[in-house]
Amino acid sequence: MSRRLQRALLGLAAAAVLAVAQQAGWIDSGSGNAERAASHASASAQPAEGNSALERAIAAQASGVMMTVEARVKKTLPDDLKGSRHQRFLLDIGRGRTVLVAHNIDLADRVPLDQDDAVRIRGQFEWNDRGGVLHWTHHDPRGRHPGGWIEHAGKRIE
């Protein structure tokens, strides 16, 4: 099979995966529909049942999914100082499971967190065999990627 055909097939497969993920509600369509956004925000208000996008992404071993998650900090970790600096912490998502948050502190302020603090996070989920990682929890200075944020103690950090 030629390289050109391989790339075309890969592009078609990626488009199909994106369409299925949008239809399933795993990612935002970017339509700006206020009703859908309000529904998504209220759904994420209850950590146990409200993190359905996260649950679906984990079950599907999906990556590249923008979502909003509400949870408590299980543990703060040392910063990752290799390349762009990232504040790291684990979220308790229930049933003994955790998700790592990697928050870029070169692009956004550090979040003053302690164990058991409640947070609401908008970011991109990447599945891994340890539960997954939420990143892109900040604005994109180039405007090419949907921005994320972390809400903690009544303050939104972008």
Q: How far apart, in Å, are the first and last alpha carbons?
A: 45 Å
Residue stretches low in confidence (pLDDT < 50, at least 5 long) are 29-49
Helix content: 25-40%
Under CATH, the homologous superfamily reads Bacterial OB-fold
Strand elements, count: 7
Helix/strand/pairing class, anyone?
alpha+beta
CATH topology label: OB fold (Dihydrolipoamide Acetyltransferase, E2P)
Order of helices and strands: HHHHEEEEEEE
- Tell me the overall shape: globular
What do these coordinates show?
The structure is a single chain. This protein has 158 residues and is α+β, with helices and mostly antiparallel strands. The chain has one domain (3-157): OB fold (Dihydrolipoamide Acetyltransferase, E2P). Helices cover 28% and strands 34% of the residues. A five-stranded mixed barrel has the order 1-2-3-5-4. It is globular, with a radius of gyration of 16 Å.
Which helices and strands, and how do they pair?
Elements: H1 3-24, H2 34-43, H3 47-50, H4 52-60, E1 63-80, E2 86-94, E3 97-104, E4 118-126, E5 133-135, E6 149-152, E7 155-157
Parallel strand pairs: 3-5
Antiparallel strand pairs: 1-2, 1-4, 2-3, 4-5, 4-6, 6-7
